[in-house]
Specification:
Blueprint lengths: L1 H28 L11 E2 L1 H4 L22 H6 L3 H6 L4 E2 L1 H4 L11 E2 L9 H6 L11 E2 L1 H4 L11 E2 L9 H6 L29 E2 L8 E2 L1 H4 L14 H6 L3 H7 L3 E2 L17 E2 L9 H6 L3 H9 L18 E2 L9 H6 L13 E5 L6 E2 L1 H4 L28
Antiparallel strand pairs: 1-3, 2-5, 4-6, 7-9, 8-10, 11-12
Length: 390
């Protein structure tokens, strides 16, 4: 008899739970169309009718009556993910807490609650990768980006699952002995020095633009016992760059043993300047803080084509490696005949620093939380930095 009572109690408990889940669902679905919360894959709380895990039914501090903001809400359940995503190199959307940029919060037709299929999800941001190529790497052609990449964080800048060459050789085990490599020892350079891992117009995924000695098969122009090593090998031909690199303001790697190949591939590249990746991404590999600040800024500088529009990439006589004096760089786009009220130039001195007043004295070209890219609020805070009597 006692056993029967226990069984009935357990049955009643689960029945009550099922009823409460159904009730929660039905209350919400009176206003919210049920079709919007169903799909091949459903978020656990939605499937269980636990709308209140994420939403407050009456009032909330955040849009959508959410209990928390952005990734903070997601991490309240996905605690292990929060710990893992704090390690190594973190994907920009993850760093910015934009989980919903890729994932649907309720239901989706794709595994992992992705809003679109894997490749389309990646192409939302990586639009340049969506361009069709004559020759495509098989995983890329099949839209399987995660064969090579980690979507959230990794130990390297490209978010690869392992070191690049090891990753390539995990599939291409016979690559080093193939005819095209002519016995060239892989340890002397990386696979990506010559090959594009996604696609190319050239056979064998060889990158679009070839270094002239490489294209002419004159390997001994750079390699050999009698040749220079590191950056000196590059500057033997590119002598004009050497002078620029010795400018007062240059890259911290300029003139170092491997300085050139931090940005350039010695053999082939997809850029005419044989950069390891597209222009701004080369800069971003070191200047991530600047790019993150720009991305998070409420008032961004209008998009420009390249960092090199304003900066001399090898070296300059000017601070921040600018191509010209600060005001001149700005006035290339911002006409001096426009409306502005504060004088600038060599006769206008910033009393705080004793230096010439320039556009960047008041404006931050990399973005700002204040209107007009001002470094401080224009109401009083900015002006009273100098005009203290007011």
């Amino acid at each position: 008899m006692r056993r029967l009572v226990i069984i009935l109690l357990i049955f009643g408990l689960f029945t009550g739970l099922a009823c409460s889940v159904a009730l929660a669902n039905e209350v919400c679905y009176k206003c919210h169309d049920k079709k919007n919360f169903s799909g091949k894959f459903t978020h656990g709380p939605v499937a269980q009718g636990k709308c209140g895990d994420c939403h407050n039914p009456h009032v909330a501090k955040y849009p959508g009556l959410l209990q928390g903001e952005g990734a903070t809400l997601c991490y309240s359940c996905h605690k292990r993910s929060k710990t893992e995503f704090a390690k190594g190199v973190v994907h920009q959307p993850v760093r910015d807490g934009k989980c919903l940029g890729c994932h649907a919060p309720h239901a989706a037709g794709h595994d992992g609650l992705l809003r679109k299929n894997l490749a389309e999800t990646c192409f939302v941001c990586h639009q340049e990768m969506a361009k069709p190529q004559a020759v495509s790497h098989k995983p890329f052609a099949q839209g399987q980006c995660t064969v090579c990449h980690q979507p959230h964080q990794a130990k390297n800048d490209q978010l690869l699952k392992m070191e690049a060459d090891a990753l390539c050789l995990s599939c291409h085990q016979q690559a080093q002995g193939s005819a095209g490599h002519r016995g060239f020892p892989r340890k002397l350079t990386g696979c990506l020095s010559c090959h594009n891992p996604h696609g190319s117009s050239r056979k064998g995924l060889v990158r679009q633009h070839l270094h002239q000695p490489f294209a002419e098969k004159k390997c001994d122009s750079c390699h050999g016992a009698q040749q220079n090593t590191g950056s000196e090998a590059c500057l033997h031909c590119h002598a004009g760059i050497k002078t620029t690199m010795m400018a007062p303001h240059n890259h911290m790697f300029a003139g170092t043993e491997n300085g050139c190949i931090l940005c350039h591939s010695p053999h082939a590249g997809d850029d005419k300047k044989i950069l390891k990746t597209s222009g701004n991404k080369v800069c971003q590999s070191c200047h991530q803080d600047t790019f993150s600040r720009y991305a998070q800024s409420q008032h961004r500088h209008p998009k420009i084509d390249s960092c090199s529009d304003c900066h001399e990439v090898h070296g300059s006589d000017r601070l921040a490696m600018l191509r010209d004096d600060g005001n001149q760089v700005c006035s290339r786009c911002h006409l001096t005949q426009g409306k502005f009220s504060h004088p600038v130039g060599d006769k206008v001195i910033d009393q705080r620093t004793g230096q010439m007043m320039t556009c960047v004295t008041c404006h931050d070209p990399m973005g700002s939380p204040h209107r007009y890219h001002l470094v401080l609020s224009a109401k009083r805070e900015l002006c009273t930095q100098c005009h203290r009597s007011y």
